[in-house]
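Re: the 138-residue chain
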Amino acid sequence: MRIHLVNPSDLSFGTAVITPRWLYVLAAATPAQYGDPLIVDETLEQIDPETVKPGDVVGIGIHTGNVLRGYKVGQMARERGATVVYGGGGVGLMGSLADAALARDGHVIGIIPRFMTEVEWQHPGLAALEVVEDMRER
């Protein structure tokens, strides 16, 4: 199993961009038994689907500007047998990302802060939902 952390983008500039900090924070927080995560910033280079194998875990960060590409990466990951991990929300961009992967018979795991479950923002169709205390722990 390999962990892939992806910042999706339809545009690859190849140079002179600032890779989002969350990629490095999550990579550093990955337990040693899972090895070094593969960090993919698609503003530099697109993810190679051949690197995603069944049983891998793919973490995708999305925002308004990259959401459509994020959906495509999630669908590709599921088609290749990987698990998709994301923020756990059931509405907005997070919910749409989960729906896209689930539409491919996906195994999707969410990680969500407790306050979001108290207002019922979690996605109802996930394979697993890990509830953490706050955004920092998430």
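Residues 3-132 form a domain with the Rossmann fold fold (CATH 3.40.50).
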